Amino acid sequence: MTTISPALPYPGASDQATPEETDPQGVFSLTEYADRLARVQELMHERGMASLVVVDPANLFYLTGYNAWSFYMPQAIIVPATGPAHLFARAMDAQGAHHTCCLGPEQIHGYPEHYVHRPDIHPWDWITERALEIGVLEDGAEVVIGVETDAHFFSPRGFLALHGRIRQASLIDSHELVNWVRVIKSPQEQTKLLLAGRIATAAMTIGLEGVLAGAPQYEVVSEIQRAQAFGTPGVGGDYPAIVPMLPTGASAGTPHLTWNQQSLRSGEATTIELAGVHDRYHAPLARTVSLGEPTPRLRDCSEAVAEGLTAALDIFTPGTTGREVHAAFIACIERRGFFKESRIGYSIGIGYPPDWGERTVSLRAEEETPLAAGMAFHIILGMWQDNWGYETSESVLLTPTGHALLTDVPQGLLVKP
Predict the structure, then answer these.
(1) How far apart are CA 252 and CA 100, in angstroms?
(2) Reduced to 3 states, what is the DSSP secondary structure of residue 268?
(3) For the segment 189-198, what is each residue's pLDDT rounded down to a tens digit?
(4) Largest Cα–Cα separation, the chain
(5) How far apart (Å, rounded) are the C-alpha atoms in residues 39 and 163?
(6) What residues form DSSP beta bridges with 72?
(7) What average pLDDT does range 190-219 have in this prediction?
(8) Which of 224, 230, 260, 254 is nearest to 242 (CA)?
(9) How far apart are the first and last CA of the chain?
């Protein structure tokens, strides 16, 4: 397999923006958005959908560039089988949507403030009625409407309000239709991931430097968060979908813990998991630090995981399945007496709270989806044991001839005095 430098996602790639007309923030070209909408509508046609109700904030951003901390309130893009998509949001948010969104003013609709937090009416009452009025939703006996029923921030009450005003058409689960369109990253998206990887490298470097005996956990995290927001010279960072995680000592055996008021102690291991973010594209990264000589079991685990990572990356090329990558890793660690039940990775790209995963392809024993150039993954090798743990990860982009790491931080267990 061709060895590829982590500085660029693949030979010939560029980190320069294209000179095309873009959305208001200059994040993506209008041609890019048109292509995304066309691919979504093509898949809708294959599934017999007359409309698609999109509520995942990552998918709103993907289709229109809409980007605001408004996802805690009901909002959606409704995509008809043909024609332009329309955005529906709280009036105060809709008013500012033109600052980020590639849609025209006639495609942006704001529901009145008196629909907010009411027991007797719901914003989805208004959204549904307005969508029916302008024709992006139809209510007929033969009409099928796809809905992102498993997306974060779409409440059961919101669905019931939508369902209550659709009396004839069938509402069906979209099964992450837009998420699956997002799986293959365009050249413009790959550039965003490249820059996010550079920010992750900078943030992790600062985090690892800050892990010292006696250092309060919150101080370590505060420096990481500053680095995430600052980015790198000329490339600004962004807020991550998940805050930095810092399991320490006995708590390192449990994933997804954040930080507390305690100080780091000699003789304990600390895991840092974070992400670099640029224009909402995430490059996650994890490393483990041992303050003092690690236990033999932790040392053995880190060496087994390193072998497994090498084996997984050796076959991480287009055409390989997630199942095969998972099997390569598991075979290595089991030979060393270690076991892992959870998946070892998942697709990444755009991220909004509470998750930076795309909820599509996973690297696990049951995954038969072939990998393809343009996919990006967080290979997360967490070994969570009783009272101790080890974690390391890489963000990886599939290229036409192999893969490229998006970050550049030394691998393996870091031992500090």
Answers:
(1) 40
(2) coil
(3) 999 999 999 9
(4) 71
(5) 27
(6) none
(7) 98
(8) 224
(9) 38
Q: What percent of the chain has pLDDT over 90?
A: 92
Q: What is the pLDDT of residue 6?
A: 37
pLDDT in tens, 224-283: 999 999 999 999 999 999 999 999 988 888 889 999 999 999 999 999 999 999 999 999
Dihedral sign of CA atoms 52, 53, 54, 56 in order: negative
Closest CA to 146 of 54, 16, 271: 54
Amino acid identity, position 179: N
Is the separation of the CB atoms in 210 and 291 below 8 Å? no
| 13 pLDDT more than 90 | no
pTM of the model: 0.94
Asked if 87 and 64 touch (Cβ cutoff 8 Å), the reply is yes
User: d(Cα 99, Cα 78) in Å, to the nearest integer?
Assistant: 20
DSSP 143-180: -EEEE-TTSTT--HHHHHHHHHH--SSEEEE--SHHHH
Q: Which two tokens stand for residue 116?
A: 């907010």
Strand-pair category, 76-80 with 388-399: unpaired
Burial zone of 16 (CB within 10 Å; 0-12 exposed, 13-18 middle, 19+ buried): exposed
**Of residues 76, 347, 38, 405, the one with CA closest to residue 185:** 347
Helix (H) or strand (E) holding 77: strand 76-80
Q: Are 76 and 54 in contact (CB under 8 A)?
A: yes
Residue reference for tokens 């289709």: 63
378: β partners: 346, 395
> What is the DSSP secondary-structure string of 89-101?
EEHHHHHHGGGT-
